Amino acid sequence: MIAHHTTQALRRSAPTLAGLWLGAMMIAAGQAQALPPVEVVGNAARANVPDGATLEKRLALRAPRLISFGPEDEMFIGSQAGRLYRLQPPYDRIDAEIPLSGYPHSAVVHDGYLYVATTDHLYRTAYTPGQDVTEVDFEGVADLPGGGGHASRSLSVGPDGRLYVALGLQGNCSAQRLADDVAFEDRRGGVMALDPTHETPGWTPYVSGLRNPIGMAWSPQGILYLNNNGPDHWGYEAPPELLVRAESGSFHGMPWYQWNDDEWQRDTCIDSAPPAGRDTLAPPVATFAARSAPIGLTFLPEDNPWQVDMVSAIHGSWATQASGGRATRRPPKIVGIRLDDDGRQGQMVDLVSGFQAANGERWARPAGVAYHDGALYFTADDGDTGLYRLTP
């Protein structure tokens, strides 16, 4: 685990958290430990969280998605409701609600600009903290391959100062990929990069072969990790969803190959020749159960109280087995991921669960996730929608 070497020092500096830390580390080490249920402050629900932790709803929002932080601790939240939300500490009220058409899924502040990624375009406006912004203030920076199916566009700033956008394939088996020799409208299924300082910014393929990569997170070493939602046409138990380590030019198989039963398997749904052989494909860092729909992803600092390297928001499947009823749904939850020393293998740790009852009914579905000043924030875009905070 990347953060393991600080554990003893942190225990000494925060003895009141010793029980929580020990419990989290036991879970991370593979020892079973149930998360105790607690009342969720701010609504009538109950959830399961690490011992001693508190979960609270900070405020209601309409269909919120990914979270980012800007200068002076401003929080930005994209949405499916045609709104970009801005919040100021302590993040319990809306400071600004910016109407934006075209599904403003995510936003970042970078080098004096506020950037927003919609399904078809990347927009920006010159920005200083607290500034009043309206839709007319935004200018187009670059077009994005649009069209139906997997309309979210996740945006991130890389350690090299470039902007990175993740976009999914149109369907399960779409013959689309990110490459210079592919028509622009079919450059989907991976991550593209753009240098905003160029006079005419243009997208460059970065990684490809992913059906629907939504969560993006950069490690302290500058490596990009991605959550990937797998296809639906193999049924309800396969293939699993993936967490992948993505490096410049890497290809991750889809739709030609699926990771299943600990190996890459050829997917016969597409008969065109794959751009690379299966022997070139790296295994995923970790897997989630099929139909889990992992979305938000973030790295945590080494001194985080749960002693995990990453956190992911599991949205939970939308589909159900015809004969099994609603209880066959994959449950939404928040999970931690503990990485090995080289960051190529990961182990899951449940951090928040209990969003779904035994009959399949849900009170919330997590989407975006972020960590700030010792607290873990996540959005729920379905059920009791809004912003939530987990504190130790």
TrEMBL record:
Superkingdom of origin: Bacteria
Keywords per UniProt: Signal
SUPFAM superfamilies per the UniProt record, alphabetical: Calcium-dependent phosphotriesterase (SSF63829)
Source species: Chromohalobacter marismortui
Signal peptide: 1-34
Pfam families, per the entry: GSDH
Residues of the Glucose/Sorbosone dehydrogenase domain: 147-310
Gene3D superfamilies the record matches: TolB, C-terminal domain
InterPro entries for the chain: 6-blade_b-propeller_TolB-like (IPR011042), Glc/Sorbosone_DH (IPR012938)
Claim: Metal-binding is one of the keywords in the record: no
Record carries keyword Signal: yes
Taxonomic placement: Bacteria, Pseudomonadati, Pseudomonadota, Gammaproteobacteria, Oceanospirillales
Name of the featured protein: Glucose/sorbosone dehydrogenase
